[in-house]
Backbone:
C-alpha cells in the first residue's frame, strides 16, 4: 500500500502558525518535539514530520477504513537524513510504515509504503487517470497489466502529486 503528502512551504507559512502555544504539543510526541527543538530548521522539521504522519495515515485509513484524528498515535522516527532527503518510519497501531521525504526550496513531499521493498518502486502518475472506489479511495486501472493499482493523491497550495507503485516491479 502507498500514501503520500505534499506541503507547499509558502502556503504553510500563510495558513499555520506552528509556533503558537500548544500547536507542537497537540500534534507531536515528546520524542518528535525533541527532534523539532534540536533541528537546525525547526519549521522544516515540523512540516516534514507532519508530512510523514499524513502519508502514513493514508495507508492506515485505506487499510482500516477508520477515519479519525490521531496525530500522536502516528509516531515518527528518522533513520537517515541528509540535506535534501530523509528516510524514516511511522508506527501506528502496531503497523510500521516506511517513508521517504524529499525537501526542496518550495515543498516537502513524503511517500509512505507498508512494505519497505516498495519504497523505491513509487512512480508519479497523471491525475486524469485516477478513479475512486466505493469508499472514496483513489485507484488507477493499468491497461497494460489489467490490474487495479491503489493510488495516493495529495495537494497543498501550488502542488498536487499522485503516486502509485510501479506494477511492472511488483
Residues:
Amino acid at each position: 500500500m502507498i500514501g503520500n503528502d505534499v506541503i507547499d512551504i509558502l502556503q504553510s507559512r500563510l495558513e499555520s502558525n506552528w509556533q503558537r502555544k500548544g500547536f507542537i504539543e497537540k500534534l507531536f510526541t515528546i520524542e518528535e518535539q525533541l527532534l523539532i527543538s534540536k533541528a537546525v530548521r525547526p519549521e522544516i522539521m515540523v512540516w516534514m514530520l507532519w508530512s510523514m504522519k499524513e502519508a502514513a495515515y493514508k495507508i492506515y485509513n485505506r487499510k482500516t477504513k477508520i477515519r479519525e484524528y490521531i496525530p500522536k498515535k502516528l509516531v515518527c522516527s528518522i533513520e537517515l537524513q541528509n540535506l535534501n532527503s530523509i528516510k524514516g518510519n511511522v508506527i501506528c497501531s502496531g503497523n510500521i510504515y516506511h517513508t521517504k521525504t524529499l525537501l526542496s526550496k518550495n515543498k516537502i513531499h513524503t511517500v509512505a509504503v507498508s512494505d519497505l521493498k516498495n519504497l523505491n518502486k513509487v512512480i508519479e502518475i497523471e491525475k486524469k487517470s485516477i478513479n475512486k472506489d466505493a469508499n472514496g479511495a483513489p485507484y488507477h486501472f493499468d491497461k497494460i497489466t489489467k490490474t487495479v493499482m491503489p493510488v495516493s493523491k495529495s495537494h497543498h497550495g501550488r502542488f498536487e502529486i499522485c503516486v502509485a507503485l510501479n506494477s511492472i516491479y511488483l
Summary: Strands lie at 2-8, 75-81, 85-92, 95-103, 107-113, 122-124, 131-132, 138-142, 147-156, 159-165.
